[in-house]
Amino acid sequence: MAALGEVRVSDLPTSAGPDLDVRDASRRKHPWRWLSAFVVLVLAAQLVQMLITNENFGWSVVASWLRAESVIRGLGVTLMLTVVAMVIGIVLGVLLAVCRISANPLLRSAAGVYIWFFRGTPTLVQLIFFYNLSALLPQLTIGIPFGPDFASFDTNTLITPLLAAILGLGLNEGAYMAEIVRGGLLSVDPGQREAGQALGMTNGRIMKRIILPQAMRFIVPPTGNQVISMVKATALVSVIALSDLLYTAQAIYNRTFETIPLLIVVCLWYLAVTSVLYVAQSFIERHYNRGARHQTASFWDYLRIRPRSQS
Amino acid sequence: MSTAVLQARGVRKSFGHTEVLAGIDLDVEPGETVVVLGPSGSGKSTFLRCVNLLESLDAGRITVDGRDVGYDVRNGRLHELPPNELARRRRDIGMVFQQFNLFPHMTALENVIEAPVGVKGERRAEAVDRAVALLAQVGLAGREKAYPRQLSGGQQQRVAIARALAMQPKLMLFDEPTSALDPELVGEVLVTMRDLATAGLTMVVVTHEISFAREAADRVVFMDAGQVVEQGRPEQVIDDPQHERTRAFLSRFL
Question: Which GO terms describe its molecular function (chain B) (predicted)?
């Protein structure tokens, strides 16, 4: 407020303000916030106490197994499976999505049937199915359809647990990725395609330079979620005796009966991997947000305690 | 063969049971600016989109620079072209859209050089030089690095004009270029277009801006119900319309 007696030269008269000013209003109390925060604190304290005092956690056992060679090898199998299955899933997903929106009705419905089948049956069942493929098709043959064969393989030797796992997870993922990619492609304004056509761009170039970069903004976040789901879904392969992270841990605790500590080892590794992926995802999202109105939140925003500013 | 840059004969187009174009004949000579006026739904935008085959024709024929855009003539018949050949022929026809349709993930400069570099295979450095000059020509010097959303509607539309010009088209199509703009931004786009008309660019402009037609057009074409009702010098068509439908349409602007 201007001091009394001071004369200000201004185009607009400055207001002295009312007697009652919102600036001086007493703020609303938030008793429920305080109560809920208190409850959370009590629960957290209990959790910490249990983690420290309950000897069944066996933290020393956890520490001794955390970086054991067999566990690290199991982690390697889990990561390799995730990468390979996701690559298959993404490539297959893009192909299926392009089929789904193509002008050819046969391609459209073929892709539709594929997606319907692989999304409609449990991943676990598909995995066991591929593992037991030899019971359905004892011989796999390459040749001209309904014509001569070039090569023939015994299914039992060809489909190892690893190949069954890759097929089961990858083909299944393709169906989910197809829907994600299709949604992304359809989210781009049709005017973008027309602008590309009017400039004399070929369909392939329009897809690569105009549609896909814009669709990426809608494809990348759910794909990140799919990768994180895939890391965890690979644990299913332990049922077909593939020595991933979980199967390795199971093999150890079947021997030593240190069930809980080894499951904690497994959880810690899964958490470590998914946390790294969350951070990577937030960076990739920011990259594809160039020119976009809404900037996305980073990984740390999930964990942040600082109150959000009111808008 | 005539000298016309654009030649349309008996162009027909239906959407379902609605006939949108009922036999359009139109010639556009080199350097000419033709403004197409007409009420909403008269088929003028559809006609424009037929020229570069964003819409296919049901009947008739359109040639640009003496060639069918989407067809080859072999053994006295028209044969539909494969998609990549169609894309090649569209290079010579620039188009400016009502909704701008700039590429939102590219800067103004990247929007302008995308097609010259990616489609024509121009050297990047040359394309950049020309793009900078073109952006300056449409009054956007210094905004090369701006993304479309950082520009006003009028600025975006001028980038879109520069983007189309960068392909050095023989014919420019403007599809209601000012209809999506706030009233105070219409003028800057019209001034840019008038300069292009004065510079001798061959243009077909679909618009509702009667004043632009009066100032910049060499010829005004009035369309209604999918037909060309009358055409001529702007002062003839606008000030002394011969047909009842033209008079009815123009009376709404007085």
Answer: ATP binding; ATP hydrolysis activity; ATPase-coupled polar amino acid-transporter activity
- Residue A41 belongs to a domain: no
The CATH number given to whatever domain includes residue A89 is 1.10.3720.10
What single string gives the DSSP state of each residue in A112-181?
HHHHHHHHHS-HHHHHHHHHTHHHH-SEEEEESTTS-EEEEEEHHHHS-HHHHHHHHHHHHHHHHHHHHH
Q: Chain A residues with CB inside 8 Å of B54's CB?
A: 194, 197-198
**pTM confidence score:** 0.79
Which residue range(s) make up the domain with A174? Answer: 58-288
- Beta carbons of B105 and A290 less than 8 Å apart: yes
Are A162 and A127 in contact by the 8 Å Cβ rule? The answer is no
* Number of domains making up chain A: 1
**Beta pairing partners, B203:** B33, B172
Q: CA-CA distances (angstroms) from residue B151 to B99, B100, B158, B177? A: 14, 12, 10, 16
Look at residues B185, B223, B252, B201 and name the one whose alpha carbon lies nearest to residue B26. B223
Sorted by where each starts, the structural domains of chain B and their CATH numbers stand as: 6-251 (3.40.50.300)
What confidence category does residue A282 fall into, taking pLDDT thresholds of 50, 70 and 90?
confident
Question: 3-state SS of B41-87?
Answer: CCCHHHHHHHHCCCCCCCEEEEEECCEECCEEEECCEEEECCHHHHH
Residue A244 falls inside a structural domain: yes
Is A54 in CB contact (< 8 Å) with chain B? no
- Extract the tokens encoding B214: 């009066």
How do residues A154-189 score in pLDDT, each as one tens digit? 877 777 889 999 999 999 999 999 999 999 999 999
Q: Are B138 and B159 in contact (CB under 8 A)?
A: yes
**Is residue B170 within 8 angstroms of chain A, CB to CB?**
no
What average pLDDT does this structure show over A272-299? 76
